[in-house]
Design brief:
Elements lengths: L2 H13 L7 E4 L3 H15 L5 E4 L2 H9 L13 E6 L3 E2 L5 E2 L6 H9 L1 E9 L12 E5 L4 H14 L6 E3 L15 E5 L7 H9 L4 E4 L1 E2 L5 E6 L2 E5 L13
Helix pairs in contact: 1-2
The structure holds ribose-5-phosphate.
The site of ribose-5-phosphate has 18 residues, from helix 2 and helix 4.
Length: 242
């Protein structure tokens, strides 16, 4: 079985949590894309749901697969968000934003009663940080913001560089909301909560890819089948609004 098969297995398992009439947050990335495709098949068979896409890419996919869409303006509270992740730790803390969609993903997850993460087993880690942490910043003063984040990281005992994300043509990657992404190559993040709080205190930082206390369930598929991670002591994020 390939990673692609595992992603599909996780996406299929997540479908069981979707109920008629639900307002869904639709994640971004290759795993979420499979979920959107499968959801489109269910809609074709008569399932009545609406979705809010977390990126323009997901909007296009949902339109292609016939998933009815709505907006945060019309549906500010959602029932369930299904999204992928770049890393998932045993406490169900996540790194997200490898595809640059972290800001809308976090807004949508916070507006949802539940967030289910779907991933292949390569995303499961004991400690967050091997995957570079995406940090979305405003373009104005991005060089200063980068230096401020690097200094902050040093102060927190994190080693590694902070790098402006560029696309293949060398230009900075610009997010759907018009910001740029700095990737923090920290290798290991021992205190995600401390880092998260420190990052949002910096001017210029819009959002970071640490999703803490947001996921209610992770569905992970691998060689040994599908398994789940649930928070042992689920604490609702103070930022969750639904
Ligand atoms: O910005 C992108 C998202 O956070 C994705 O959910 C994440 O990068 C995982 O994507 P994939 O399922 O393609 O590994």
């Amino acid at each position: 079985m390939s990673i692609q098969d595992f992603k599909r297995a996780a996406a299929e398992a997540a479908l069981a949590h979707v109920e008629p009439g639900m307002k869904l947050g639709l994640g971004t990335g290759s795993t979420a894309a499979i979920f959107v495709e499968l959801l489109g098949q269910k809609v074709e068979q008569g399932l009545d749901v609406v979705g809010v896409p977390t990126s323009e890419a997901t909007r296009e996919l949902a339109e292609r697969f016939g998933v009815p869409l709505t907006t945060m303006k019309d549906e500010p509270e959602l029932d369930l968000t299904i999204d992928g992740a770049d890393e998932v730790d045993p406490q169900l803390r996540l790194i997200k934003g490898g595809g640059g969609a972290l800001l809308r993903e976090k807004i949508v997850a916070c507006a949802s009663k539940r967030m289910i993460v779907i991933a292949d087993e390569s995303k499961r880690v004991e400690r967050l940080g091997k995957f570079p942490l995406p940090i979305e910043v405003v373009p104005f003063g991005k060089e200063s913001t980068l230096r401020a984040i690097a200094k902050l990281a040093l102060r927190l005992g994190l080693e590694g560089e902070v790098v402006l994300r560029r696309s293949e043509d060398g230009c900075p990657v610009v997010t759907d909301s018009g910001h740029v992404i700095l990737d923090g190559h920290f290798h290991r993040i021992d205190d995600p909560e401390g880092l998260a709080a420190a990052l949002v205190s910096l001017p210029g930082v819009v959002e970071h890819g640490l999703f803490l206390g947001l996921a209610s369930l992770a569905i992970i598929a691998g060689e040994n089948g599908v398994s789940t991670i649930e928070p042992t002591q689920f604490q609702q994020s103070p930022r969750r609004i639904a």
